[in-house]
Amino acid sequence: MMAAISGDAACGAAVKADGYGLGARAVVQRLAAAGCRDFFVATWAEAEGLADLVAAQGIALSVLHGVRAEDMAAAIAGPARPVLNTAAQLARWRESGGGRACDVMVDSGMHRLGVSVAEIADGLLDGLTIETLMSHLACADEDSSMNERQRAAFAELAGRTGARRMSLANSAGVALGQGYCFDLTRPGIALYGGVPSAALAGRIAQVAFPQAQILQRRHVPAGGAVGYNATWIAPHDTEVAILNLGYADGYLRGFSGTGMASAGGAALPVIGRISMDLTAIDVSAARDLAEGDWVTIDYALPAASVASGLSQYELLTGLGRRFARVWG
Ligand SMILES: *Cc1c(COP(=O)(O)O)cnc(C)c1O
User: Does 313 participate in catalysis according to the annotation?
Assistant: First the structure.
């Protein structure tokens, strides 16, 4: 889907933060099999965890944080390319990178990472072997005049750096149109079921379906309290199930009283406060659900974001290590 709307541009994939929480190795293997060739992580530790896949899958891996002094050993030993962000990083790579190719991030207006357009005009990149010149959009998920300003500033650099390719768009940027896609796109969240902008609404399927198991089913009489601080009092006799899921798994307190689960078509509201390892749901609508049964947590990212007050990104990257990642 993201490859299709990237048009003529190659479609890469951001797999930082362990593939947005889903497991970077499994994500890379699946996307490489689907034809994706360019992957982005944040750190050298993340790159090391994928290093063997670079040759095995015939892919390229870029490290967005660039090279700090303490990264140089790992950068030289491994197959990934740094995305150089500052004059000091560029100097470090010139001195110790052995002439190897790098990527470069240029700041086109977000004022986060990247060298400036003026520094490039002053010759900061001269003599480097640059695979991809990149920039990043601040407001791609909104209808903002900043998008066109950033696109134009970046487009001005075409042919002026010796970079083999140019890359600007994240997921929401791809949806802004072909003019934003340049040679290579870098979607992340949309690959994992996130809907980053209205333009993509209804076109992206949910990817991650968290499930939890019932540890205990109990009857709570009218007036009985459930959970910490007794924030939920049964308005009438209620059937309650206690799940082995809590905020330590990334199911944060924002879902207290707002989250939903389902089983066999029955909607099962979260009641009371989410605990570290436990969550209570009302199972009055599911007569047969019993201890040991599994329920699916409602986790369509746009709706779960509204329910919890968390961003779609936080919802995925926060999913804890106690979940087994099972691929369908
Ligand atoms: C995280 C990141 C992306 C992917 O962004 P999404 O919004 O998840 O599509 C692309 N480029 C850079 C530089 C990033 O840091």
Answer: no
